[in-house]
C-alpha cells in the first residue's frame, strides 16, 4: 500500500455531522450526482460523488467543487467509492480542484475503473487517498 494511501478504521475516519448543511448537485443529463454532507467544521467540505462522470455530467461535480472554493474551504474530501465511470473531463475537474488552496483528498476505496483511469494517466500519485476499512454498505463516517 502506498504511503499516501493509508487505511484507517471507521472510528478514525473524518467525522460527518448529520445535522449540518446538505446539498445535492445533480447532472442535468445522465446519471451523476454530488452530495455535500455535513462535517465537524465549516472549513471542511465532505462531498460524495456517485454515478458516471463525462462531459455531459461533470458540471455538477465542478459546481460542487467550485462552491467549496468560494466558501473558502480549508479542506475538501471527495468520496469517489460510488463513481462507476469517469473520463478525462472527470479527471480534469479533480486536477483543477487539487490546484486550489484547499487541495483535494479522495476518499475510497477507488472503484476499479477510476483506479485504472489514474494509473493509465499517471495521476494516482497526485491525490492523497484515504481508504476506509468498513463493512460493505456502511459509509464509515460517524
Structural summary, described in words:
The protein is of the alpha/beta class and 142 residues long. The chain has one domain: Transcription Regulator spoIIAA. It is built from 3 helices and 7 strands. It has a 7-stranded mixed sheet. The radius of gyration is 14 Å and the shape is globular. The protein starts with 6 loop residues before the first strand and ends in a 9-residue tail after the last strand. Residues 5-19 and 135-142 have low confidence and may be disordered. InterPro entries: MlaB-like_STAS (IPR058548), STAS_dom (IPR002645), STAS_dom_sf (IPR036513). It comes from Streptomyces laurentii. It holds the Pfam family STAS_2.
CATH top level assignment: Alpha Beta
Q: How is the quaternary structure best described?
A: single chain
Largest sheet: 7 strands, mixed
- Which CATH-level-2 architecture? 2-Layer Sandwich
> Can you tell me the number of structural domains?
1
CATH topology: Transcription Regulator spoIIAA
If you average the pLDDT, what whole number results? 85
Number-wise, the strands total: 7
Q: Number of helical runs?
A: 3
Proportion of helical residues: 10-25%
The low-confidence runs, each spanning 5 or more residues with pLDDT under 50, are: 5-19, 135-142
Strand order of the largest sheet: 1-7-6-5-4-3-2
Order of helices and strands: EEEEHEHEHE
Beta-strand fraction estimate: 25-35%
| Ends apart, CA distance between termini | 25 Å
Given the C-alpha coordinates, what overall shape results?
Answer: globular
Label the structural class.
Answer: alpha/beta
Radius of gyration, CA atoms, in whole angstroms:
14 Å
CATH superfamily: STAS domain
Amino acid at each position: 500500500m502506498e504511503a499516501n494511501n493509508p487505511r484507517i478504521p471507521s472510528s478514525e475516519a473524518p467525522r460527518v455531522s448529520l445535522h449540518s448543511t446538505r446539498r445535492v448537485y445533480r447532472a442535468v443529463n445522465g446519471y451523476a450526482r454530488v452530495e455535500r454532507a455535513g462535517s465537524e467544521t465549516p472549513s471542511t467540505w465532505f462531498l460524495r460523488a456517485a454515478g458516471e462522470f463525462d462531459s455531459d455530467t461533470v458540471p455538477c461535480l465542478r459546481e460542487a467543487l467550485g462552491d467549496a472554493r468560494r466558501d473558502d474551504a480549508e479542506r475538501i474530501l471527495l468520496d469517489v467509492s460510488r463513481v462507476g465511470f469517469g473520463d478525462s473531463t472527470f479527471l480534469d475537474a479533480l486536477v483543477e480542484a487539487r490546484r486550489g488552496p484547499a487541495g483535494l483528498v479522495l476518499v475510497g476505496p477507488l472503484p476499479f475503473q477510476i483506479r485504472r483511469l489514474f494509473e493509465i494517466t499517471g495521476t494516482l500519485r497526485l491525490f492523497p487517498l484515504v481508504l476506509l476499512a468498513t463493512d460493505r454498505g456502511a459509509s464509515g463516517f460517524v
